[in-house]
Amino acid sequence: MYTEDFEYYRADSVDDAIALLDEHDGSELLAGAQGILTRMKTGEESPPALVDIGHLEGLSAVETDGGTLSVGALATHTELADSQA
């Protein structure tokens, strides 16, 4: 059970996520949910809103360009290990 009520928003894009974070002061990003939801259940954190970005395309990309490796914020260990980059 969560200790406080909160709003949930599913971002349609990275720009939408940024706008939602700006609009809802103190909101937190939700991606894998392994950390924030646990801390909310124990009362350690109580953000007024969660902005879900876990489904957004492109945030889990693993790519190389000109010798530079780029790892997306939502890339998993498996995606990184399986990457040809």
From TrEMBL:
InterPro entries: Diverse_Substr_Oxidored, FAD-bd_PCMH, FAD-bd_PCMH-like_sf, FAD-bd_PCMH_sub1, Mopterin_DH_FAD-bd. The keyword Oxidoreductase applies. Residues 1-85 form the FAD-binding PCMH-type domain. Keywords: FAD, Flavoprotein, Oxidoreductase. GO terms for molecular function: FAD binding; oxidoreductase activity. It comes from the Archaea. PANTHER family: XANTHINE DEHYDROGENASE SUBUNIT C-RELATED (PTHR42659:SF2). This is Xanthine dehydrogenase family protein subunit M. It comes from Halobacterium bonnevillei.
